[in-house]
């Protein structure tokens, strides 16, 4: 990899962390200064909504750059979408392909990245603890899902307005949502991410139809 590539990826990582920090600070101060009695979980929920929404916009803009030369535009299948994300998108965003891609019946895919670039510099996970985002649908952020799937981080995990692991994961999931919404606009998909104590970040693309 060229030095220019390393510099470019470092700059991109730094800019994305600035964006994440801005969203966290804005919603933290807005919640604390509000005349309404906001609980810690409400502040966290607003932070995560803001991060997902910002990531969605970034993903939509990235799709313009990455997809305009694709001959299969408009004819994507779940395996094709997952392969594109694991190869072209990851190479563009992080300077490498995904470390491992696992799948089940070509409708459930797990992209595994060891030492995820945007989490470098964050504390390592200890013990059996796992950081997980909520399951995010392509049609919006569900507050009910947030409550059920630990979407709102306890305020005790956050030091002031400093970003935490989950902030980065939710922002990245938002980017994937924006990109995949363009590639696979009418199909069913749910996306979530996990970080384990082996420093593996897993991004799950679930194309299974929701059960009634």
TrEMBL record:
Pfam families in UniProt: TRAPP (PF04051)
GO cellular-component term (any): cis-Golgi network
CDD domains per the UniProt record, alphabetical: TRAPPC6A_Trs33
InterPro entries reported in the protein's UniProt record: NO_sig/Golgi_transp_ligand-bd, TRAPP_component, TRAPPC6/Trs33
GO biological process: endoplasmic reticulum to Golgi vesicle-mediated transport
Similarity comment text for this entry: Belongs to the TRAPP small subunits family. BET3 subfamily.
Name of the protein in its database record: Transport protein particle (TRAPP) component
Origin organism lineage: Eukaryota, Discoba, Euglenozoa, Kinetoplastea, Metakinetoplastina
